[in-house]
Amino acid sequence: MPRVTHTALVAQGAYGAYAANAADLNMIAADATNKEQVVFTGAEIIIAHNTGVSARTVTVTSVNDPFGRTKDVTAYSLSAGEYAALGPFELDGWLQTDGKLYFEASHLDVKFAVIRLPA
After folding, report:
1. C-alpha torsion angle, residues 107, 55, 64, 45 (rounded to 10)
2. Which secondary-structure segment (H or E) carries 53?
3. Which of 12, 61, 67, 72 has the fewest CB neighbours in a 10 Å radius?
4. Which domains does the chain have, with CATH numbers?
5. Banded pLDDT at 17 (limits 50, 70, 90)
6. pLDDT number for residue 2
7. What is the DSSP letter of 91?
């Protein structure tokens, strides 16, 4: 099956239209089998929340940068109840060939949301 595609919440900024629900984060349970992705512009921050009672891990998958290097965020550990904010990541080294940023968690106890910073 394909990766689960998350929709990034575009941050409203200082003068945004803060109508009801305009800034609400939609946390989605990780799919540890199919993994996650988001359309990638280089302005995304991944929010991860471990809602379980055991430690869980999160990984963000890199690609070769112009110098042939990779540097995955590998098995970043979240204790029970912890949140993490990962990114923003540069396009070089993180943009997959399909235009996405790939990430995943070790268990569905991890909930994800993606915030896109305004231009």
Report:
1. 90
2. none
3. 67
4. 4-12+24-116 (2.60.290)
5. confident
6. 93
7. S
Rounded Cα–Cα distance for residues 115 and 10 (Å): 6
Residue whose entry in the numeric block shows the structure tokens 């200082």 = 14
Q: In angstroms, rounded to a whole number, what is the distance separating the alpha carbons of residues 107 and 32?
A: 5
Q: Give the pLDDT confidence score for residue 64 in this predicted structure.
A: 94
Which residue in the block uniquely carries the two structure tokens 């993994």? Answer: 35
Vertex 114: Cα angle to 109 and 118 (nearest 5):
165
Whether the CB-CB separation of 95 and 101 falls below 8 Å is answered with: yes
**Is the pTM above the cut of 0.85?**
yes
Q: In which residue are the tokens 């869980």 written?
A: 56
Compute the residue count for the chain.
119
Rounded Cα distance between 42 and 112, Å, is: 18
What is the C-alpha to C-alpha distance for residues 102 and 61, in angstroms, rounded to an integer?
A: 5
